[in-house]
Design brief:
Pfam families: DUF4942. By secondary structure, the protein is an alpha+beta fold. Helices cover 51% and strands 11% of the residues.
Length: 275
């Protein structure tokens, strides 16, 4: 079963044959040039100030945006922030290219984004990239299976169709749609994420390329509801989704073989639940 893109091969290449060494070398060279640029700009700023032309914080900025650029801040204050911003962007790009984000459910991706923005980032270095992606590669199956388990645990057991022991042919979810005098509309929030996660897991289990998030099942469902506000049944290659005025959605799976694969994963995490 192929559940991910190429993550790391031979400890020196990332997906798209991106060279770790090239990334690290380019990052270090860029930071040196940025530091030199800040120091040079500071020298020019001192010169213009000495002849009455003010400092770079004023003459290099758009009106009303003085002191709004790190390049005109002291080097010891600017470089840590600039370095962190560059490293954050590189980590984000590496994760996208590695395919690891496709294995994560919405909750895991949200936590990763929060850590990226607020947490302590390891500096971009060959050792840090290798150790990070070796660990991700080692845990990728657990990450993928946790996504399926989170979708499963998010179901409501108020419906008899939803079996608390396994995925059946059909599941029922609450708060999928809203209904008013203009017809139906798709609700946004965690329920939308759950349906998108479910589609992504099924594509991965089927060994297929995951649709771009601009064209996932929730976007297609939203477009269908918008164009057909008084219809109640959406259908694609994986699902038939029937929705009702009270907001619930009945999702019928079209691929029993993929349901079996999901239930195999649930059985491994909850032994004894499945016969």
């Amino acid at each position: 079963m192929q559940t991910e893109a190429e993550v790391l091969t031979d400890h020196n290449e990332l997906i798209c044959s991106t060279s770790i060494e090239r990334i690290v070398t380019g990052r270090d060279a860029a930071l040196k040039q940025i530091e030199a640029l800040i120091r040079q700009l500071d020298d020019v700023s001192r010169l213009t100030s000495a002849i009455g032309g003010d400092v770079a914080n004023h003459w290099a900025m758009r009106q009303g945006h003085s002191f709004d650029c790190w390049l005109v801040q002291p080097v010891d204050k600017a470089m840590p922030v600039i370095t962190r911003n560059i490293d954050r962007s590189i980590w984000r790009d590496l994760m996208l290219k590695s395919g690891m984000l496709t294995l994560m459910d919405a909750e895991a991706r949200s936590q990763w984004t929060k850590n990226l923005e607020e947490g302590d980032l390891p500096a971009i270095s060959e050792a840090n990239i290798l150790s990070t992606f070796e660990q991700l590669h080692h845990n990728k199956q657990d990450v993928f299976e946790r996504g399926i388990i989170n979708v499963f645990r998010g179901l409501s057991w108020d419906y008899k169709t939803n079996n608390p022991c396994y995925f059946g042919k059909k599941i029922i979810v609450n708060n999928l749609v809203k209904y008013d005098k203009w017809g139906y509309g798709l609700n946004w929030g965690w329920r939308r994420d759950q349906i998108a996660d479910l589609e992504r897991m099924l594509f991965l289990l089927d060994g297929k390329t995951i649709p771009d998030n601009r064209h996932d099942v929730t976007i297609r469902l939203m477009d269908f509801i918008r164009d057909n506000p008084h219809q109640q049944v959406f259908e694609d290659e994986l699902f038939t989704i029937r929705y009702f005025q009270k907001g619930s959605g009945h999702i019928t799976f079209k691929r029993p073989d993929l349901i079996d694969k999901m239930n195999d994963i649930i059985a491994r995490h909850y032994p004894g639940m499945l016969a």
